[in-house]
Design brief:
This protein has four helices and two strands. By secondary structure, the protein is mainly α. It has a two-stranded antiparallel sheet with strand order 1-2.
Amino acid sequence: MAEPSVTRYSPAAVALHWLLALLIVGTFALGLYMHELPLSPRRLQLYSWHKWAGVVILALSALRLLVRLRAPRPRDVAMLGWQRRAAHATHHALYLLFFAVPLAGWAYSSAAGFPVVLFGVLPLPDFVPVSKELAATLKGLHKLLALSLGALVLLHLAAVAKHQLIDRDGLLNRMRLHRARA
């Protein structure tokens, strides 16, 4: 349970939230853009960047989860019970997808026979065998999970807008990059 005196997330939690938000939105946009490109050196470069971003997202998500589990949470704003349950379910699903999307992408890359070489220098292990059939399944799974993450991010943004513009309950202040001046 949150300590009554805590009104904001920790600086580490805030920084990780916004860094991951930027990385996830950017990586999602890159994925949408690059998959339609014809085969070329540029497309291969973008796929490498997409994979690198996925690995970084995976690592930062693990760090974010550790911070989330260790740091006290700010007190909750007043919400109806169903809204609180929906918020908790959405956050749990977001955390699940923070891990599932990059892991499915990594598995797809492994199954397709295209190893992940982080920043072009650190080869990461393949954790599924090369298999055309498995690659096709994992490609579809990665896409479905990524689109689900995108939908949940939009839902999260809609909830933030509701709290900020309609409820005016100060919820956004808990995740601001700096303290609001009085």
